[in-house]
Design goal:
Helix content is 25%, strand content 26%. By secondary structure, the chain is an alpha+beta fold. It is globular and about 45 Å long.
Length: 253
Amino acid sequence: MRIISYNVNGIRAAITKGFLDWIQQANPDVICLQEIKATEDQIPTEQITAAGYPYQYYFSAQKKGYSGVAILSKIKPNNVVFGTEVTHMDFEGRNLRADFDDLSVMSLYLPSGTNMDRLDHKFKYMDDFLDYINELKKNIPNLIICGDYNICHEAIDIHDPIRNQTVSGFLPEERAWLNKFMKSGFIDSFRHFNKEPHNYSWWSYRAGARGNNKGWRIDYNLVSENLKDRMSRAVILPEAKHSDHCPILVEID
């Protein structure tokens, strides 16, 4: 199974930039999207079906034009779960899960901490999400959580770790949480295969950051340890330029 995660920063904008042609070339079985910034009735679902993805699931934020996640699939899931049933986590459309025969794929958009109020919300979300996943794993042990975590895990995952150490996304507390989350039973699929620096998934639109590769790796396909031996490949796909993020891929045999 080829699984891609992609924060598209607006699905309608991404489509105008050639996103649908790209997914036909990339040919994932399942693609998890974050920050779709649209409701289902605003999305050209027929065009997406024609691109090869008849099974489409959208979980939008209550606020128009904000946040939201989606899963597009060539394979019909056995079950789809919208949200977490934790109200403060769900009104912004940040979590969607599709259950297949022997594994489940989740699209996650973790909040960013752009100011103190949002940082407090982010930390609460992180704590409650870890509790939610720990409970979920009792019934869904083979889980792949794909998405924008809005956290760089290690210094190798950010272009300037010294000057960014007081910036949300690279705060010690955020990094410690992500470390704890991974140690609860998940593998960073990209780092499982690639230990090299200068591999990022997001770049600011300012100051030519992408052209100079001054980026952050904040997007992850985290794979349950149960599936470790079934992982065959995991890569970042920076050539796709429909967003300020780029897609990330994991393949599961």
